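Problem 12. The chain below contains 389 residues. Write out its predicted structure in C-alpha cell notation.
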Amino acid sequence: MVTRHLTSERLVLTVATVVVVGVLAVATWSLVFTSTGTADQLQVDADVTQRYAAIDGVSATQTTTITRNGTVASRTTYDATLQPGTPKKRLELVDATTRRYDLRVSNGPTLWLYDRDRANATRLSLSGSEADRGERLQRLFATLDMATATETRSVEPLPVVPRAGARPAAPAGPMTVSYRGTASVDGRDAYVVHLAPEADAAYEQTLWVDTERFFPVKKRTAWTAGGERTVVTTTYTNVSYDTGVSADAFTPEFPAGTTVTVPETPETLTYESVSALEAAAEMRVPDPDIPPSYELQAATRTEGQIRGVGLRYANRTSLLTVAKYDRPAAGAEGNAGVTIDGRPAQVSRDLTPSVSWSCERYRYTVRGEGVSTDRLVAVGQSIGCPVGE
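Solution.
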C-alpha cells in the first residue's frame, strides 16, 4: 500500500532542507517523561481532552516574543481566532517589530499567507495537524496526577510556532514534568507546568493552562543551540471562549488584484515495507544495522527538484531515522574527528543529534530522538558509501 501526499514546509527553508524534512515527514515528536512530586500534588478529575475540544471557538490577542541571549529579537501581535481540537486558525496582524504577513489563515489542509504591501498570497498544503493537542494535554496532566515518580509515561511538549528563525530541536532522552502551582494570566487562573530533560538544561518548556477549559493561555519554550539561548513566549490575552466561530473565518478573501502563488513542494509517498520502497525507488535504499529493539514505522520516497528516500524506526522510548537524497554537500567539512567510509561526517550534538555525510552522488543523514550520538555514528558507519555512490 502506498500513501501519497504533498509535504509543504516553511518558506524560509532551503530546498535541501525541505526535502530532508519531507523524507522524514512521518516522524513524530515523542518523548519519555517522569513526574516529579511536589508538596502540592496536582489532582485533575476533569476529562482534559473533552474540556479542551468542547471549546466552541476562541477569540484572543496573541503575542509572541522571541529573545536571543536576553535581547528581544522580535515581537508580533495578532488578533487570533482559533478552533481548539482542530488546526483551524486565523491570525490578523496588529503589530510587529519585523516584517510579517498581514494575514495567516489555516483551514487544516491549507495555509494562506497574505502580504498586503506586495499584493501577494502564498498557499501551502499542510501535512501536519494540531488536532491531537487535547490528547497531549490529557497525557501531561495524567503524568502529573501520578502519586509517585517511579513510572515513565509518553508525553510530548506542545509544538512551537517558528518566528524569525528555526523551531527548536526535540529534546533527546527522558524528561521531567513538574507542577508549579497556579498563576494568573490576564485575569485567568492557570496551572503552571514545567517540562525539562533530566540530564540537560539546554531545553525547557513552561505552560500556563486555564484551570477551567484547559486552553494553554501562555507558553514559554527555551533552548540553547550553537551557544545561543533562544526563548519563545506566546501569550493569549483578552480571551473569549465559545465564540461560535463561522467556517468562513478560515476561508480567506483577498482584495482584487492579489496574486496567489503556490510554491513547488516535493511529493512524498509512504510504503509499508522496505521491500515495497525498494521496488518503487530509482535509487538504492540504505540498509542500516538497526538495534533489534527497533521496528520499522515507515519507508518513504520523495520526488521533486530533489529526490530522496527515508526510513523511520522506533522502539518504546526513542526514534531513529535515516534519510538519503541526491544532493551531496561538496566540500563539506567534518567535525569531532568522525569519518564514515573515509568521508568527513558532520555531527550535531544538539537536542536532536544527527550525523551527516556525502558520498559521490548522495547525501545521508541519520537522526535520533532519545538516541546517543555514538549510536547514530555506528548506524551511519553501517551504511557507509556503497559502491557506485
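Discussion. The first strand starts at residue 2 and ends at 6. Students who got a different answer should revisit the alignment rule from Section 12.3.
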